[in-house]
Give the backbone structure.
Amino acid sequence: MCKICGCENGQLRIEGALSPAHPHAHDHVHQHDHDHDHDHQHAHAHSHAHDHQHSGDGALHFGNGAAGASVPGQSQARLVRIEQDILARNDAIAADNRRVFAAAGVLALNLMSSPGAGKTSLLVATLALLGEMRAAVIEGDQETSADAERIRASGVPAIQVNTGKGCHLDAQMVAQAALHLGLPERGLLFIENVGNLVCPAGFDLGEAHKVVICSVTEGEDKPLKYPGMFAAADLLLVSKIDLLPHLDFNVDQLIANARRINPGIAVLRVSARSGEGMQRWLGWLRSALALRQAAE
Ligand SMILES: Nc1nc2c(ncn2[C@@H]2O[C@H](COP(=O)(O)OP(=O)(O)OP(=O)(O)O)[C@@H](O)[C@H]2O)c(=O)[nH]1
Ligand SMILES: [Mg+2]
């Protein structure tokens, strides 16, 4: 179960092979095992009482409790316990991934965005420019192998992970995918997460950097609406900048909003379509890979 949205992130499928070993596969909590630490009142007029708070801004806040999220029928205390349990197991596997990547001199990047922000297009354009740098790609989507096929068409090894009802990749999925795929020794491992600006930010995959991609069609307000994602990322790629002449989008406002959430976030503007900004992105990749190798 996803600690953030409660989705069933238990259906790892790596291109045809169902994995029985996935630790989240039986991670569901049983409904109705009342342990009387839930925070609703049975006497309330509704069948499930509110766990949201009303505030001066007129909004209903469901994330102000200890768990930072709300799942019907589950108390905040129980959600915190589930979250701690899931994250502890994920973090242990992520730490293993990090050791494996470091031993191979691999720089792993976790690319995250809303659906359709241009992750795969940016990867395809990037892979064509890598020159001497080796690379491999893990593609995460709920269904289809379309993105992995797009990557393989460019001659770079790629493996698709389908998460089924799951809304994000986790460290165990990446560990298994890396085993199937093989690592690009002293090269770049790109991990394209499931398109979602919320849950992927909460799960360490063992990557060196989280990279958030926000396209110019999404609105300048996204960092403020989805702060967890922008807080977690080291780099913001503003994508599809070739479209700017057709839009009212204010890139400086997007960047200011991102830096309100994360003052240290680096920013690059890119277009997979026109190629604008791609050399600066390549430069960032080269530097990050060199730093990774210097740390060996
Ligand atoms: N104009 C323009 N369109 C782009 C650019 N990059 C991607 N697109 C278009 O945006 C759409 C989505 O691109 P994808 O690369 O599939 O986006 P994605 O983030 O990988 O999507 P999901 O994996 O489904 O979340 C496609 O129609 C692309 O052609 C770009 O730089 N400029
Ligand atoms: Mg994609």
Residues 113, 115-121, 141, 147, 195, 239-240, 242-243, 271-273 surround guanosine-5'-triphosphate (ligand 1) (CB under 6 Å). The longest helix spans residues 76-103. Helices lie at 76-103, 119-127, 146-152, 171-181, 222-225, 227-232, 251-261, 278-294.
